[in-house]
Amino acid sequence: MSLSSIYILDNKGKILISRDYRGDSKDYIEYFVKLLNESEDQNLHRPVLSSTEASFAYIKKNDLFIVCIIRKNANIALIFAFLRKFLNTMVEYFKELEEESIQDNFVIIHELLDEVVDYGYPQITDSKILQEYITQKGYKLKKKITIPPVVTNCVSWRPEGLKYKRNEVFLDVIESINVLMNANGSLVKAEVNGVVQMKVHLSGMPQLRLGFSDKLILDNSHYGSLEDVKFHHCVQLSRFNNDKTIYFIPPDGDFELMSYRLNPEISPIFLLNSHVEHHAHSRVEYTILLKSQFKKCAIAHNVEVQIPVSNDVDSPSLSCSIGAASYRPENNAILWLIKSMAGGLEYYLKAAFRLSSFVSDEEERKIPIQIKFSIPYFTVSKLHIRYIKIIEKNDTKSLTWVRYTTQNGDYQIRIV
Asked: Of 128, 214, 340, 351, whose CA is between 20 and 30 Å from 19?
């Protein structure tokens, strides 16, 4: 990949800042403005515009255009990846990327342009590395720049020389369940989104080796029943493809090691039966039966069931076999709170309201019941961390902690 120059333009095509890397694209930006106007007049939105003189790859952000001029054959996917990376770097420096922030940070942007590209080839694009020697407070680089060691290290995501008194690794497997069920208990959709989240406080430059349960075997982007598996860029994919073990040198602090999706044919975590009975425009009665479908040794914490009611009810009368129920008029709903609920149990809630003579329950029937919960030490996918090994040169003793949590995503049950 190579590019000739970079321009940042306002929404009228005025040049705010530019950097010419090869000296072969003078005044070619005028062709881009002309091509862009023609494209907009024809209601076409092309990410790449071309003329006989050059090609122009660009992205738009808050009425600003970030444009790369290309005069040689280049990998356009890499060009756009670089543009996105550069845009994200500026956002991290300035928070809001707009014309005023470009003008206020003119010097810093020039410094960034000098560092991220050399003679048309991307160099350093990691914002954490750039921020080590281009600070937002100082608008000019010091004359003698000390390049951080991490710039010349192949492990760009982790600085050298880290030291901790207490070396620890925390690993969380968190799965969020999205469910939509009909009133008869049949599933309309069920999806599980999972992440393997890590917090690493380790000295030096350790290598970690992580193994999952033998029941799961990765094949391309599928890991057993898991789909859309994505790894952090620190994972050595070549070694993983050979022995199905994750090798990586971790970033320092919090990061997401892995994410995945699951579309299983599963029994819902919670089943809910609801019965609503109206009595001749005088009162309405609700009977809610909640059943936990997970294994008996697991316990769901902070279970919340929100049941919609008509917007013209009063004189509530509520009773439940466990927890506490209350009427929330600001939400037009009953809120049933259960501090903890083990698997395989069943509880009920009964509610009665007085109605006015002109109430309509149509709106209430369209709004589904929502359930919130958190179940520690439990996963729907059966994903299990078999071992975590920490390989360090100095043989420092380290502690590892692993937790599993299943929680609600968008968990809804229709009343009718």
From this structure: 128
pLDDT of residue 403: 95
- Residues 356-386: pLDDT tens digits? 755 555 555 578 999 999 999 999 888 889 8
d(CA 322, CA 309): 21
Query: Which residue, among 304, 307, 267, 289, has the nearest Cα to 345 in the 3D structure?
Result: 289
E strands of 163-312, at which residues? 168-181, 187-201, 207-212, 218-219, 222-223, 226-231, 246-248, 253-262, 270-279, 283-292, 299-308
Instruction: Report yes or no: 67 and 6 within 8 Å, Cβ to Cβ.
Output: yes
| pTM of the entire predicted model | 0.63
Contact status, residue 130 vs residue 124, Cβ threshold 8 Å: yes
Strand partners, 193: 176, 261
How far is Cα 271 from Cα 293, in angstroms, rounded to an integer? 7
Could you state, in order of their start, the residue ranges of all structural domains in the chain?
5-151, 168-266+380-413, 270-376
Phi, psi of 93 (to 5 degrees): -80, -45
C-beta separation of 271 from 185 below 8 A? yes
